[in-house]
Each structure stands twice: as C-alpha cells, then as structure tokens.
Specification:
The protein is mostly beta strands. The chain has a domain at 569-670: Ribonuclease Inhibitor (Leucine-rich repeat, LRR (right-handed beta-alpha superhelix)), CATH 3.80.10.10. The longest helix has 13 residues, at 45-57. The radius of gyration is 31 Å and the shape is globular. It binds 2-acetamido-2-deoxy-beta-D-glucopyranose (NAG) (12 copies). Residues 596, 598-599, 606 line the site of one 2-acetamido-2-deoxy-beta-D-glucopyranose.
C-alpha cells in the first residue's frame, strides 16, 4: 500500500510509485450481471424508447453504444440487463466507455432500474443530475471518477433503497457537499464511497453517518474533513467493517488520544485506514478493544508509540506505521505486537534503534518487512532466512553491519524486493550460487559485493530496478550482463571499478530508461544507447572516440559524459534530442563548432515554429574544457529555462550576442555564464 523505501535517486521515485503502489481503499462495489432474458420478451417498448433518448443525448466518440439499435434491448444492447421476472430494464452498466454529454430525463421511464454505473466516463465537470434522486428502485449507484462536479444533489437522499453509493471523485474540478444530512435517510446503505468529495464544510458528517446502521464499508479518503468524531460515544454503526479516512487534515496536528475514535468499539471492524491524518502521540489504550481488526493503516502521521493493549489485537495481519515518529528499541516495539503472526509490517521512516531480536518470534509469517530509514544496528539475524513467504525485505538506510550470506537468503523463494542499501553490509555468496528467488528490485547501494562481479546476479533476469553503486566491484563487466539485464529499466552501477566496453547491441535489445554507470573504468566508444533512455550518466570513465552519429534515444533528457576522453565533433544529431535538459560534456577532447541547431528543421524549413522546437528545455549546458570552436551557440536564445551555462576553456570566438542579458533575465537565480576566450 505504500512505496518501497529503497534509496534510489529522486528520478526513480515516481516510477517506483507506479510500479508498486497498491490502492488501499477497497474496490468499488460490483454488480453481478443478471442472466439474459429468454428471447420471448425482448424489451418493453417504452423503456427502449427511453434508452434511445438517453443515447441521443450522450456523446459517444468511441461508439460504445453501437449495439443500441433494434428491438431487443434486453439481450443485445451493451450494458443493458433486464429483470428475468418482469422484463423491465434493471441494470445499466456503462463504465469506462468514454461517454459524456447530457443525461436525458427520459431515464426516469426506467422505473425498475436497480443498478446503474457510469463510472470512469467523462461528463465534463457537469453536476450530477438531480433527477437521479427520482430513480426510486435504485440499489446500486456508481458514479465514481466520471468527472461530475459541483454540489452533490441532496436528492440522492430520496433513494431510500440504496445499498451501494459510489461518488468517488478524483478527476476534474470535483464534487462537494456542505452537509451530509441527506445521507441519513439511506437506512439500507451498506457501501459508501465518497473519496475525493470535498466535505471540508460538512461538519455534521459523523452525525449523519451514525444514522446508517447497515453501513459496512465507508471511504471518506481525501475529503478535507476537519472535525473528528465527537463524543457521545453511543454509535449505531455496528455493521462497519472497513473505514478509510486517510488524507484528511482534521485539526492537525491531533493528539491521537484526544481524538475520539469510537471505532475501536465497532464489533466487526476489520480495516481502518487513517494515513496522513496528522495524528500525534501514542495510540490510545482503548484501541486494544478492537479485537476484530485485521488491517491497520497509519502511515504518514506523527505517532510516537503503541499502547500496551496492542497485543490484544489478535486478528491483526497488516500493520502500517511507516513515516511516523516512533523511537526507542525495535525489539521492545516488536514485543508489543500480537502473537498471531503479521503478514505485513511497515515501520520505515521512524527513529527506531537497537537491533533485531535473536529469535524470529512472532515475525515468522511475514510477507513484507519494511523497516528502512531507521537507526537499527547489529547483524542481520539468520532467522530472516526462515521467513519463507517474504516477498519484500527492505532494510535500507539503517546502521546494520556484518555479512549476509547465501544461507540468509537460501529459502526466500518468493523474494521480489531486496533493499539493503546504505548500511555497512557485505553480501557473500559462491560465484555459482543460483538463488531460489527472482528479484524485481535490488537496492544494494554501498553494500560490499566485490571485488568480483557478483555471479549470483546472473540468474536475476527479472530485475527492473537495480542499484549496485559503490559496492567495491573491481572487475570487468561480464558478457552475460547485457542479456541478463536487457529488461532492466533502471540501472545504477556508479562508483565502482567496473571495466570493459559498452556493447553495440544496447540500442535494439535493452529497455533501459535510466543508466548511471558513472565513475568506473569503462572504455571504448559510446555506441547508440537504448531507445527509451531518458537519463544517461557515463561521466568519469575512460570512453574515447567520437560521439555516436545518432544517439538512437530520442527521449533523452540528461546526457552526462564529463571527464572522459571523447573526441571529434558534437554530431548534428544532437540537435534532434529535443527533450534534453541537462547536458554535461565537460573535460573531454571534443572539437569543432557546436552544431547549428537552428537549422536542423525538417526539409530545411526554418520557420519560426521549427526553431522553437529545438532544445527549449535545456537547463544546464556545460561544455567546459574541450577544444570547441566557432561561434557562440545561437540556439541558446530559445532556451528560456537555461540556468547554468559554462563554455569556458574552449576556442569559441566572436562576440557574445546581445540577447545574452535577456537570457539571464529569464533564467532562475543562479545564472552562471562563463565565456572565457583562450
Ligand atoms: C473534466 O471536465 C473538465 C471541464 O470540462 C475538463 O476541463 C477536464 O479536462 C475534465 N477532466 C478529466 C480528468 O476528464
Ligand atoms: C427529494 O429530495 C429533495 C432534496 O432533498 C427534496 O426537495 C424533494 O422534495 C425530494 N423529492 C421527492 C419526490 O421525494
Ligand atoms: C473544498 O471546499 C472549501 C470550501 O468551499 C474550499 O475552501 C477548498 O479549497 C476546497 N478544497 C479543495 C481541495 O478543493
Ligand atoms: C441511531 O440511528 C437511529 C436511526 O437509524 C437514529 O434515530 C438515532 O438517533 C441514531 N443514534 C445516534 C446516537 O445517532
Ligand atoms: C476498552 O478497554 C478498556 C481497557 O483498555 C476497558 O477499560 C474498557 O471497558 C473497554 N471498553 C471501552 C468501551 O472502552
Ligand atoms: C518526534 O518525537 C520527538 C520526541 O520523541 C520530538 O522531540 C520531535 O519533535 C518529534 N518530531 C516530529 C517531526 O514530530
Ligand atoms: C506461507 O504461506 C502459505 C500459504 O500461502 C502458508 O500455508 C504457510 O504457512 C506460510 N508460511 C509461513 C511460515 O507462515
Ligand atoms: C560507499 O560505501 C562506503 C561503505 O559502505 C560508505 O562509507 C561510503 O559513504 C559510500 N559512499 C558513497 C558515496 O555513498
Ligand atoms: C520503448 O517504449 C515504447 C512505448 O512505451 C515501447 O513500445 C517500446 O517497445 C520500447 N522500446 C524498447 C526497446 O524498450
Ligand atoms: C584510458 O584509455 C586509454 C586508451 O584509450 C589508455 O591509454 C589509458 O591508459 C586509459 N586510462 C585509464 C586511467 O585507464
Ligand atoms: C541555415 O542554413 C543555410 C544554409 O544551409 C544558411 O544559409 C542559413 O544562414 C542558415 N540559417 C541560420 C538561421 O543559421
Ligand atoms: C515550412 O513550414 C511551414 C509550416 O510549418 C509551411 O507552411 C511551409 O510551406 C514550409 N516551407 C518549406 C520550404 O518547407
């Protein structure tokens, strides 16, 4: 539910999030499609006409409603299901269909409509039609992420048979409600999803929800709620199983024991998410009463500890306490956990000290152990290897030291994420060891892996992100490297003594997007780089020869090649790298004029539009210490984002263009222009 806490450079963060973030709110309710009608009763004409009116008002660019023609609306029309019993249209499911436009009032002719979903369409920020409140038979109404906006019509409170209501609203300008009194009439409501609906002025929210005795699942994620649930404590919500109030500011910061959270008394409550709620302090003792809890999500708060009663949570399986302010000895904290065996323990980003316990104790069933970014010290105990279901082991950025051997890892067949960066750990394994696992992410920065290139990595051809920088490898890059890691998107190998040459096949076979091989002993020529590469850092190696005539990577944003022995001209193809932001070619042997990027437009067309397309994004251009000559690079006039420009120690000639002042005015605060004529 949260991102893994491997320490990778910022550049990977978003990517990493996409890869691993799993939503922590429950899925919206699903309605099972009813079996099709016998053909004898194809469709009630009045209802078919109503559907045709509806279609006429809708925009349907992808022709999702193409099947809406002919008489047999019950059997043949996409998304329409009729009641087997009475032949009336009972269900209308038009989800993620690219539909928008107007909803015709004829919809009201569908008097037996029990279930309607318009989720994931785009109604262009229009309000939810009030007329939905007149569809009296409605049980399941799903309007999530459909780009409705404005006031949630209180008319929905007339749908007294409603069981599920999903108004999740993270798209577009968004929905709001100033009070939830209308909800209190929905006595049958079981599932309510209002994530993203602005409720910042709906101070009555808790009171109104308390009128819903059937409520089982509640999401009020990111609703801007400010006031917590007030006493008195008698609560009607005895059916509540899942509550998600994450991302609400409340009166932050909130001393958690002062917040009155009657949840802990709900007899069936299994899941509570209160992430990013500004909660402070120690969780209250009375939460130990909440023995039905399975999932407790409290990441991103300011909590400082667990109550002594925590042990009573004998059903707890998933505990998320990352990015809080819990200090003290980790062993003492682990002693407070219930005995039943957690599946997930997230404690990264706290201030825990001490060392891991000598016995695995109650941690034996863990799938995810995420304790990065603390101050935990000591060895990695051998019992880690007994956690046979582990998929994610993240110990980065602590004070662990010592050696991890293949015996620690020999039974971890399910391991996908291994994060050991920023400790003082060495990994020692036989060169021919084939681990039982296939990693997706290996964060091993600053571990001792060398001096030989670790042979066990050869089997890890599933890795998408790998950081083995600063790992004391002093070896040539093995032949298998380029094939094993041809599916790796993110490589960091910097700060080793890795030697060898870059192969010619990188362009066709590798999917890499980020390659940082800086500060090694690579030599030979730079060939075409992987097609989708955006970040290339080969600085501080010993590459020689000319730059490739064609880089082969049109999306390149960073090209960092300083301190090599590259020679020859900067090729004209440089001008085609139109997403470039950071360019550092300093301290090489490049010569000749800078290519004239102003003139590279298609077919010699130098219209103004073409000129503007070239290199507008450049933020840094460092050409210091080469042998470049010719005029000042004129294309820079178009680079309004330029912050750093260094042309010193070259043989450029001529006068500085007058517009250079203009350029420095446009740039941010630290314009550095050096133009030294040698
Ligand atoms: C939602 O509608 C608004 C208003 O028409 C539009 O500007 C916006 O692009 C839409 N947003 C999404 C995410 O579809
Ligand atoms: C439905 O609700 C609205 C607003 O809550 C109310 O004004 C209206 O009278 C109700 N309509 C019916 C038919 O009950
Ligand atoms: C929610 O509504 C309040 C009051 O109308 C407004 O001040 C606030 O900016 C809104 N919040 C968001 C996230 O739109
Ligand atoms: C409990 O719900 C009933 C109706 O469902 C309501 O009358 C009563 O006021 C509620 N109790 C509290 C404490 O809100
Ligand atoms: C909850 O647990 C506490 C002890 O931690 C106990 O005194 C109390 O009676 C229980 N019930 C409630 C409603 O707090
Ligand atoms: C964390 O807790 C310590 C006391 O243990 C306190 O001094 C510090 O201010 C807290 N930090 C934050 C960010 O709340
Ligand atoms: C690992 O998971 C399996 C089910 O997936 C379970 O049967 C087994 O007991 C688990 N092992 C441990 C050590 O919890
Ligand atoms: C490299 O690793 C060593 C040993 O772990 C560490 O002391 C040093 O700070 C690391 N250097 C960098 C640049 O991370
Ligand atoms: C580059 O990215 C595109 C779009 O994501 C993809 O279709 C293509 O296969 C990728 N090329 C390589 C070599 O990975
Ligand atoms: C760099 O490569 C050149 C040959 O291209 C070689 O003569 C030189 O010794 C290398 N320098 C280092 C530090 O390896
Ligand atoms: C573009 O190139 C042509 C010749 O190829 C030259 O005459 C012209 O001056 C160049 N334009 C600019 C803006 O550099
Ligand atoms: C240059 O491009 C413009 C539009 O981008 C076009 O109208 C014009 O015909 C082109 N000229 C040449 C010589 O290709």
């Amino acid at each position: 539910m949260t991102r893994p806490n491997l320490v990778f450079p910022v550049i990977a963060t978003t990517w990493c999030l996409l890869l691993l973030q799993a939503g922590s709110s429950s899925p919206p309710p699903q309605t099972a499609p009813a079996p099709a009608l016998p053909p004898s009763n194809p469709c009630i004409a009045r209802e078919r006409d109503a559907l045709l009116d509806l279609k006429a008002g809708l925009q349907d660019p992808s022709n999702y409603l193409a099947s809406w023609q002919g008489d047999n609306c019950c059997d043949e029309w996409e998304g329409v299901v009729c009641s087997k019993r009475n032949g009336h249209v009972a269900t209308l499911t038009l989800e993620y269909a690219g539909i928008g436009g107007k909803i015709s009032p004829s919809l009201l002719a569908l008097r037996h409509l029990k279930s309607m979903s318009l989720a994931g369409n785009d109604f262009g920020g229009e309000p939810i039609p009030e007329l939905f409140g007149e569809l009296k038979s409605m049980r399941h109404l799903t309007l999530g992420d459909a780009n409705f906006s404005g006031l949630v019509p209180p008319h929905l409170g007339n749908l007294s048979r409603l069981i599920d209501l999903d108004l999740t609203s993270y798209k577009g300008p968004g929905l709001y409600s100033t009070n939830l009194a209308w909800l209190s009439r929905l006595a049958n409501l079981q599932h309510l999803y209002l994530g993203g609906v602005n409720l910042s002025t709906a101070f009555d929210w808790a009171h109104s929800l308390n009128m819903l005795p059937s409520l089982q699942h509640l999401s009020l994620r990111n609703c801007g709620l400010r006031n917590a649930i007030p006493p008195p404590l008698h609560m009607n919500l005895t059916s509540l199983e899942v509550i998600d109030l994450s991302g609400n500011p409340f009166h932050s910061p909130v001393a958690v024991e002062k917040l009155f959270w009657p949840f802990w008394d709900f007899p069936r409550l299994e899941t509570i998410y209160l992430e990013s709620c500004g909660l402070q302090g120690i969780l209250p003792e009375y939460m130990g009463n909440s023995t039905s809890l399975v999932n407790l999500g409290l990441n991103f708060n300011d909590l400082t500890g667990l109550p002594t009663t925590f042990k009573r949570l004998s059903n707890l399986k998933f505990l998320y306490l990352a990015q809080n302010n819990i200090s003290g000895d980790i062993e003492k904290l682990l002693d407070k956990l219930p005995d039943n065996g957690l599946y997930v323990l997230e404690l990264y980003g706290n201030n825990l000290e001490g060392s891991l316990p000598a016995q695995k104790g109650r941690l034996g069933s863990l799938y995810n152990l995420r304790i990065s970014d603390n101050k935990i010290s000591g060895d990695i105990p051998l019992w880690i290897g007994e956690l046979t279901n582990l998929t994610s082991l993240e110990l980065d950025s602590n004070n662990f030291h010592g050696v991890i051997t293949q015996f620690h890892l020999a039974n971890l067949a399910s391991l996908k994420i291994l994060g050991l960066s920023h400790n003082t750990l060495a990994i020692v394994a036989d060169h021919n060891w084939v681990p039982p696992f296939k990693l997706m992410i290996a964060g091993l920065k600053s571990c001792g892996l060398g001096p030989k290139f670790p042979g066990w990595l050869r089997s890890q051809d599933t890795i998408t992100m790998m950081d083995i920088s600063n790992t004391s490898i002093a070896d040539s890059i093995p032949d298998w490297f380029w094939t094993t890691f041809s599916n790796t998107r993110y490589f960091v190998l910097s700060g080793n003594q890795i030697s060898g040459v870059l192969p010619a096949m990188m362009n066709e076979k590798m999917v890499a997007e980020v390659m940082d091989f800086s500060n090694n002993l690579l030599e030979g020529q730079l060939q075409k780089v992987p097609e989708n590469l955006t970040y290339l850092d080969l600085s501080k190696n010993n590459l020689s020869g000319p730059l490739p005539l064609d880089f082969g990577a049109p999306f390149l944003e960073s090209l960092i090649l300083f301190e090599n022995s590259l020679s020859g001209k900067i090729p004209q193809s440089f001008c085609q790298l139109k997403y470039l932001e950071f360019v550092d070619l300093s301290a090489n042997l490049l010569q000749g004029p800078f290519p004239n990027c102003l003139n590279i437009s298609q077919a010699g067309n130098t219209s103004r539009a073409d000129l503007l397309g070239v290199h507008q994004n450049i933020i840094m251009l460092n050409l210091n210490d080469n042998n470049l000559s010719g005029m000042f690079p004129l294309f820079l006039q178009k680079c309004q984002n330029l912050i750093f420009l260094d042309l010193a120690f070259n043989r450029f000639s001529g006068s500085l263009p007058a517009w250079i002042d203009e350029l420095s005015a446009l740039a941010l605060f630290t314009v550095t222009i050096k133009y030294v004529h040698r």
